[in-house]
Design a protein that fits this description.
- The structure is a single chain.
- The protein has four domains: about 110 residues, Rossmann fold, CATH 3.40.50; about 80 residues, no CATH class; about 160 residues, P-loop containing nucleotide triphosphate hydrolases (Rossmann fold, 3-Layer(aba) Sandwich); about 55 residues.
- Helix 4 packs antiparallel against helix 5 and helix 5 packs antiparallel against helix 7.
- By secondary structure, it is α/β, with parallel strands linked by helices.
- The chain is elongated, with a radius of gyration of 27 Å.
- The strands form three sheets. The chain has a six-stranded mixed beta sheet, with helices on both faces.
- The protein is built from 14 helices and 14 strands.
């Protein structure tokens, strides 16, 4: 099996890194600088030290080296002056581009792209069996088209005594081995997904809430604030890679399962997303999706847009999404625009401001879902009360002075068959008239 290189940062010396971006397609320099800022944070999270950055404006990328020859010469000189260990490009590079760039840069300077850095972070943060399997599959998907630049022998025909006539180049053998390993990993993920499906079925009666959003938006901090779970919280990109789920009480016997998920980021290639699709499908199946946004970030609206695009790709309807603007403790006044379908909340996961209102908003959203029925049965009707209490899939219930109120998930016709349809009310507060949801 061809090994997958994984960078382990030396605690005694951080890898000196130079960042490069290309400005094409009418993209403004200000936006490119923001992208470089994010790339710098990725490098920092991976254990590198950014010692310089540069960008070049071109009508289109150079197919051989991405950047122009003059700019490449300047870059080589800067690498020598700054004792650079690696150059990281904000754009994805082909195998030939990496090979040509490494040929022109000082000896021993590595050339990486944004995806390689993200994969390195994934490898560092994967803890569970599922995450490690997903990361290895993502690494191999990324590595497969780039084999030619990593091993110099790969283009040679296997030869020598006992090996003549093999009929395959070493490159073809390596590709076959990697494809075989990828098939094994996909099979392993299918088994893990079956286990996940069984766990979902065991908690099918509980409503589910998924925390999603751009990486470092504060999802884990909010998860800890809502659930009281002692989870790792870091000011680092992709600090959470392993999904976590906890039960949380929302009052009046209403319990939900809240899941913390891997963060989104711009320019994330499909090969890196695909292995995590089973994890992201937890979001697609959630009753309510909390789209957490760092409203203190200067480009929070773009991060919100990136998240919306990912959610749309997963088939998550806007009606199931609530935007949560986090980190309001870091801004003078939280923004009030761009909150999707109008449902949203403003909170600080660090100070707790707005979290109680968020709990109530979650509770209201769950109880007002289309598949949830609210019953208000008079306590004087003892037989009906007993029948209502015995109904399956109950989410919440409370006893009032004269009535029992129950929220439950029901299939078509279930209330009619039980004789309880006449006691259905519109809202959990019980103040609406009978009849119809």
């Amino acid at each position: 099996m061809v090994p997958v290189p994984v960078h382990e940062p030396d605690p005694e010396r951080r890898e000196r890194t130079f960042l490069v971006a290309l400005i094409v397609g009418g993209l403004s320099r200000a936006v490119v600088e923001e992208h470089l800022d994010e790339l710098g944070r990725l490098v920092d999270t991976a254990g590198g030290l950014v010692v310089g950055r540069a960008s070049q404006e071109r009508p289109k990328p150079d197919p051989a080296t991405l950047i122009g020859s003059g700019f490449l010469n300047e870059l080589a000189a800067r690498c020598g002056e700054l004792a650079v260990d690696s150059v990281v490009f904000d754009e994805d590079l082909t195998a030939s581009q990496v090979r040509n760039l490494e040929r022109e840069l000082p000896r021993a300077v590595k050339v990486l792209d944004r995806s390689a850095v993200i994969l390195d972070i994934f490898a560092q943060h994967a803890r569970s069996r599922e995450a490690q399997t997903q990361v290895e599959l993502a690494q191999l998907s990324y590595l497969l088209p780039r084999l030619t630049r990593r091993w110099r022998h790969l283009s040679r025909q296997a030869g020598g005594i006992g090996t003549r006539g093999v009929g395959e180049t070493q490159l073809e053998i390596d590709r076959r081995l990697i494809n075989r390993r990828m098939a094994q990993l996909k099979t392993k993920l299918e088994v893990i997904e079956r286990d996940r499906r069984l766990r979902r079925e065991r908690r099918a009666d509980l409503p589910t809430v998924a925390l999603v959003g751009y990486t470092n938006a504060g999802k884990s901090s909010l998860f800890r604030r809502l659930t009281g779970a002692d989870v790792r919280v870091e000011d680092r990109l992709f600090a959470t890679l392993d999904p976590r789920a906890r039960r949380v009480g929302l009052g009046e016997d209403l319990t939900a399962v809240i899941t913390d998920t891997v963060g989104f980021i711009r320019k994330l290639p499909h090969d890196l997303v695909a292995p995590f699709r089973s994890t992201l499908e937890e979001t697609a199946r959630a009753d309510l999706v909390l789209h957490v946004v760092d409203c203190a970030h200067p480009t929070w609206e773009e991060q919100l847009r990136v998240g919306d695009e990912v959610l749309a790709g997963l088939g998550v309807e806007r009606e199931r999404t609530m935007v949560v603007l986090n980190k309001i403790d870091l801004v003078a006044a939280p923004p009030r625009t761009g909150i999707g379908n109008g449902t949203g909340a403003v909170v600080s996961a660090v100070t707790g401001e707005g979290v109680d209102k968020l709990r109530q908003a979650i509770r209201t959203a769950i109880l007002q879902a289309p598949d949830v029925a609210i019953l208000r049965v008079p306590l004087a009707e003892a037989a009906l009360v007993q029948r209502a209490v015995a109904m399956p899939h109950q989410l919440a219930r409370r006893f009032e002075d004269e009535a029992l109120q129950i929220a439950l998930r029901v299939g078509p016709g279930a209330l009619t068959e039980s004789g309880l349809e006449a006691y259905r009310v519109r809202r959990w507060d019980g103040g609406a008239a009978h009849g119809g949801a």
